[in-house]
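Ticket reopened. Same input as before:
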Amino acid sequence: MPYEHVALIGLGLIASSITHAMRRAGMTARITGYARTAGTRNEAARRGLCEVFDTAAEAVDGADLVILCVPVGAMTDVVRDIAHDLGNGVTITDVGSVKRAVIDAVLPLLPEHAHFVPGHPLAGTEHSGPASGFAELFDDRWLLLTPPPETDAAAIDRLSAFWQALGARTDRMDPDHHDLVLAVTSHVPHLIAYTMVGVADDLQRVTESEVINYSAAGFRDFTRIAASDPVMWRDVFLNNREATLDILGRFTEELFALQRAVRTGDGAHLQDYFRRTRSIRRGIIDAGQDTPAPDFGRVRNRES
Amino acid sequence: MPYEHVALIGLGLIASSITHAMRRAGMTARITGYARTAGTRNEAARRGLCEVFDTAAEAVDGADLVILCVPVGAMTDVVRDIAHDLGNGVTITDVGSVKRAVIDAVLPLLPEHAHFVPGHPLAGTEHSGPASGFAELFDDRWLLLTPPPETDAAAIDRLSAFWQALGARTDRMDPDHHDLVLAVTSHVPHLIAYTMVGVADDLQRVTESEVINYSAAGFRDFTRIAASDPVMWRDVFLNNREATLDILGRFTEELFALQRAVRTGDGAHLQDYFRRTRSIRRGIIDAGQDTPAPDFGRVRNRES
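Engineering reply: fixed in the latest deploy. New output:
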């Protein structure tokens, strides 16, 4: 059964993409929304993303689906603001990149008559704000649901169907395992990319114009990742501390082994290591999660 | 004055792209080539990239430009093979990602009547081999020349004009400074990407199918970089050891500071760090070295 009234709390990249994807899917649900800053609310209203309200409580009034699209660290305050205005049988979900911390923070605040089905769309770009959304964002991307064991099965199925209609593939996962998997596929890669860009920015002996002009040799891929929303990422690391530190530990161990191979001139070790990483790329392309076009298809060309 | 006969030693991504770009530019020079393995030579011949010879010496016979398109570690052997067959006034250049080691290895082997103008096109994709080239590879990318001080000025200008006709922008740089700059913009980012992909590949608690399916959250960008040619990259690290270790040292110092901020929950430090890296991305886009389209333009969409 489709939702009749979807409320979006937070009106950035994910929320605005949801509005575009809902319209593309022909959904006729009422869409209401709220954002903390007046500038964001005004821009969302001007773009006609949804009916925009000045409080979160007004935005969720009468909704049968509430989607929390705010940084992980802002979830608690937002849920406090709306808990008393949630209707009977409403489904609450979120799009946070961390799941255990969100469940621990949000679940105790919700009324018993609400279904909490935490979720995470593995989709995004380096852009943010109400102008950055587009209907295709979720196409073929995974939406992971991490519902607590006692969650109403019908509420889970209904939310899965909603995301599938937006173009996503859906799956379920244990929240702690989700946080570990995402530490590998997202959180640590982001921290590393931020670090590398920070090092380049900070180096006295290489000018910023050199870094910028000569970035096409690899570095520019890091800058895209490191251009993502700073507050969102701050909250990810504060709320997925253990898994992040765990994977970072493995990363530095591995990096030191390679560093040692560079220092000692152990070419065989380096070549072996570099060779086995190609197959993962092939798997990602075969799974429809990236383009086989060289350089992400940045250059439109024929491969002859 | 355009070259009349260009010899390509090594027939991979860069060499095959040179042949396509030369034809696109309407150059009528004879193009000859050589590759070490018979399979590569046959494929290059079948594709009509150039006249293919079974020895490097035959390929360079009569050439007025010889471009060494082999991994940095293979330069010495190749130059030994051709040194006695180089004509008077010929220009030798290379496309190696490291410049000091190439100069030290190659220069002593060349006859006095040859002009050695080392070069490095900051262009590439994760693909390799004679089938991977395309005419647009060098468009708007930088070609850095690092000629020794005593190099013939006319030879440098002539080579610059050649690369510009292929679409590149050209600049000159001191070879040691080149190696430091590239350690920042290319070599260390590649080593880090290889490391992260290796960690993911190796982790027992996260399955390969999870890594692959859920890679869109950041990791897949690393896999593209880590799918580059293993032998080429082995040689880069073996031949740019000092600068790589130098920048790696800065990287781990910075990473440990961020790791500590994660451990202690220092959100202000994280957010500050993540905020200042956005401006570099903007600079790279303004300099024409990357696309402003979200996600590298992987998804064709309108940003509303």
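The first helix of chain B runs from residue 13 to 24. Residues 177-288 of chain B form a domain with the 6-phosphogluconate dehydrogenase C-terminal fold fold (CATH 1.10.3660.10). Please confirm and we'll close it.
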